Amino acid sequence: MYDCLEPCTVNxxxxxRPRTGSEPSLCLKARGALDEAELxxxxxxxxxxxxxxxxxxxxxxxxxxxxxxxxxxxxxxxTLIACYEVPTRYRxxxx
Length: 95
Fold this sequence. Notes:
Largest sheet: 4 strands, antiparallel
Distance between the termini: 35 Å
Radius of gyration: 14 Å
Number of helices: 2
Structural class: alpha+beta
Strand order of the largest sheet: 2-3-1-4
Low-confidence stretches: 10-19
Mean pLDDT: 79
Strand content: 15-25%
């Protein structure tokens, strides 16, 4: 699972609520058009598990997923590049 090799940008549309700072997310990317079928299958699996998933071109964004399920999802689809983001737990309130 690649977590820092490629930037994972998220474009929030008006239909999707913005991600809060308290939920982790998984971004799965297809390398090319040949892997798009795997991306569609991964979206169906994520939706069946009850996680909100959104496709954006050749990438799939899954919100609210924990690391263990993200690793299992990546193991099911090894041709997709995964980027898992965990929000920070502590915020610096003083400067």
